[in-house]
Amino acid sequence: MTSKTVAQLLADLEVTRSHSRPKVSNDNPYSEAWFKTLKYAPTFPDRFGSLTDAQQFMASFVDGYNHHHATPASASKTPPTSTTVTPRRSTPNAKQP
To answer: Is residue 65 domain-resident?
Structure first.
């Protein structure tokens, strides 16, 4: 008796082949997008010399990305300036809802 390949088994069970990702709890597109951004950054090294080197790189990268990185989608604003909200002043005679 010989075993079937996985593809043959799935075909026999009438399971359609799909390369899409299942919607499971550990499927997080945001963390995967962040990892890709980090991995393909020009400053990302091939190897880290030590854990301390990796921690220092990550601290620097995250700070730079969160406070100095501008994207075309945000009209070249960095995240702190694009999310700054100016509070409205309340007037003494304003009606409360």
So the answer is: yes
Q: What is the pLDDT of residues 60-95, one digit of tens each?
A: 988 888 777 666 665 555 555 555 555 566 555 655
**Number of compact structural domains in the chain:** 1
CA distance 85 to 62: 22
In a domain, 52, yes or no: yes
- Is residue 66 domain-resident? yes
DSSP string over the chain: --PPPHHHHHHHTTPPP--SPP--TT--HHHHHHHHHHHTSTT--S--SSHHHHHHHHHHHHHHHHHT---GGGTT--HHHHS--PPPPPPTTPPP-
